[in-house]
Amino acid sequence: MKQIQLNNGVSMPQLGYGVFQIDDLMQCEQGVSDALQTGYRLIDTAACYGNESAVGRAIAKSGVPREDIFISSKVWIQDAGYDKTMASFQKTLDNLQTDYLDLYLIHMPYGDYFGSWRAMIDLYQAGKIRAIGVCNFLPDRLADLIQSFEVVPAVNQIEIHPFSQRRELRALMAKYRITPMAWAPFAEGQNHLFTHPVLTAIGDQYGKTPAQVTLRWLRQNDIVAIPKSVHLARIRQNFAVDDFSLSDADMAKINKLDTNHPLILDVDTYAEACRLHNITFVQ
Predict the structure, then answer these.
(1) Residues that bind substrate, according to the entry (predicted)?
(2) Which position among 17, 40, 49, 113 bears the catalytic label?
(3) Which of 105, 126, 232, 249 has its CA 20 to 30 A from that of 144?
(4) How do residues 163-198 score in pLDDT, each as one tens digit?
(5) Is 188 left (phi over 0), alpha (psi -120 to 50) or beta?
(6) Contact present, 227 and 18 (Cβ < 8 Å)
(7) Which segments are annotated as binding site for substrate?
């Protein structure tokens, strides 16, 4: 599996396995086990997913050495702030049955995320985390964080797929060598991604599916992807993207699919809606 070097020198697999929305813990544990057996070495979870413990059990049973697995997790909004982040991080370590994380992320740019970032810097400098980063940070919040601290995020995990390519944000990230990490790389099936005529026609040239074409497009744009599936055949299929390359013409066709706006989560609109209705942030 191709590795990508983060801005602090740490190497990270460019393709991983995500467990968002796998609420059945037995199913989650099996999915992670299947992914590790297939060859995945990046596993992405989060405190708010409620399945860190299942991920930890699967890793412990896998027989794969801990140092060969790149584990990523996230601190959720209700744990924003220095002290709460410290406590949440320890709970995450306990759930995952590990004494360090490879990547720890601020899940949303809300609440006292400056306090969370200070805690994460301390944990990083203490050797408890190999790299730290953020999720869903748009250019204004990302620039603010960069200008306020000496430690620049290594990763920004955001919605990226052929229909929302985030070029302006990626340009800012490139300036600081912040690696983009795509959640929902298949757009959760929106815009008929799995049967889209452009992606299907490109895939037919290589004997690949639209999903594999999408993952290859992300690969060739130096974007980390964490597709989720609970089906072994699909887990294996998503992993099989090293045996073909997209041409410049293929890439150009996919680039034209960009709608210039998110399909799943508009961070600013989401925050405003929750504020107006006085409700707790959820995902």
Answers:
(1) 107
(2) 49
(3) 126
(4) 999 999 999 999 999 999 999 999 999 999 999 999
(5) left
(6) yes
(7) 107
pLDDT tens figures, 215-240: 999 999 999 999 999 999 999 999 99
The β-bridge relationship of strands 70-75 and 132-135 is unpaired
Residues annotated within the binding site are: 107
Q: Look at the alpha carbons of 12, 17, 22, 24 in this order and tell me if their dihedral is positive or negative.
A: negative
Mapping DSSP onto H, E and C, the string for the chain reads CCEEECCCCCEEECECEECCCCCCHHHHHHHHHHHHHHCCCEEECCHHHCCHHHHHHHHHHHCCCHHHCEEEEEECHHHCCHHHHHHHHHHHHHHHCCCCECEEEECCCCCCHHHHHHHHHHHHHCCCECCEEEECCCHHHHHHHHHHCCCCCCEEEEECECCECCHHHHHHHHHCCCEEEEECCCHHHHHHHHHCHHHHHHHHHHCCCHHHHHHHHHHHCCCEECCCCCCHHHHHHHHCCCCCCCCHHHHHHHHCCCCCCCCCCCHHHHHHHHHHCCCCCCC
Q: Render pLDDT for 52-99 as a digit per residue (tens, 0 to 9).
A: 999 999 999 999 999 999 999 999 999 999 999 999 999 999 999 999
- The closest alpha carbon to 135, from 25, 274, 270, belongs to 270
Domains detected in the chain: 3-276 (3.20.20.100)
Distances (CA, A) of 20 to 28, 152, 208, 228: 9, 26, 25, 7
Residue 193 CA to residue 271 CA, distance in Å, equals 27
Please, what is the angle between helix 210-220 and helix 232-239, to 10°? 40
Query: What are the φ and ψ backbone dihedral angles of 106, each rounded to 5 degrees?
Result: -80, 120
Identity of the amino acid at 27: Q
pTM score over 0.90: yes
* 100: annotated active-site residue: no
Angle at 122 between CA 118 and CA 127, to 5 degrees: 145
